[in-house]
Amino acid sequence: MSPPSSPQEYIPWYLNDSLEPEGRQAVETCLEGATQAQVEFVRQIQTSLKLLPQTAPAPYVRERLLARVAQPQPRWRFAWAWTGLLSVLLMVLVWMVLKPGVVLRWAVSPGEVAAFRVYRAPADDGEFTLVQEVTASPEEREYRVIDWRLLPGLAYVYLIEAVTPEGGRAFQQVVTADTWGALPGQLLVVVISMLMAYILVKYAQYVSIPVIWKGGGVEGYI
């Protein structure tokens, strides 16, 4: 027991006779300067505590406690690997939900347009690939497409092509865009995914979820 800042702090242990000799001596020295009524009050409490019956816990309580102490703690294998795997899976899921990427917007005049095809090509390569096809509506005048399947930090060229009901080309428009504007959203997705994975792994460690079963018993944990 660490030395008290004042002997009065030792009085509870003094009353139940659990003090070491040094602590007992400090309390008794303190009591020498107390009034007779204060000393008598302390003695009465000490006597009353000694008269209380000493009860032991039931045997089953002791058995449960010892069994709990002897139970082997779950061994978590490769927690960092599980965190990384969950981070990747959650990043894909959150990425598909939030879709951080380049936002393309365009407006059209009333006309016979059946669909719009959006193509993409790297700024240093002229080979376009189809990103998305949007069905046109006679009531719609403004359209929007989010391209989220791209690499951060690169520049792209987009070709927006309007298609007539007969399959011909009504008009086309070329737009150049970079992905720096989408970078904050992409970083946010990565951070959210890693944080969620870390929380899930820590929670699984806390509740000790068994993941490997062998011979009817738990063989190991994550």
Your description of this structure?
The structure is a single chain. With 222 residues, the chain is an alpha+beta fold. It has helices at 11-15, 21-32, 36-51, 59-70, 79-98, 183-207; strands at residues 102-107, 115-122, 129-135, 142-147, 155-163, 169-178, 210-214, 217-221. The protein is built from six helices and eight strands; from the N terminus they run H-H-H-H-H-E-E-E-E-E-E-H-E-E. The protein has a four-stranded antiparallel beta sheet, with no helix packed on it. Strands 1-4 form a two-stranded antiparallel ribbon. A two-stranded antiparallel sheet has the order 7-8. It starts with 10 loop residues before the first helix and ends with a strand. The protein is rod-shaped, with a radius of gyration of 37 Å.
In short:
With about 220 residues, the chain is α+β, with helices and mostly antiparallel strands. It contains 6 helices and 8 strands, in the order H-H-H-H-H-E-E-E-E-E-E-H-E-E. Strand 2 (about 115-120) and strand 3 form a beta hairpin.
Record the SSE blueprint:
Blueprint: H1 11-15, H2 21-32, H3 36-51, H4 59-70, H5 79-98, E1 102-107, E2 115-122, E3 129-135, E4 142-147, E5 155-163, E6 169-178, H6 183-207, E7 210-214, E8 217-221
Antiparallel strand pairs: 1-4, 2-3, 2-5, 5-6, 7-8
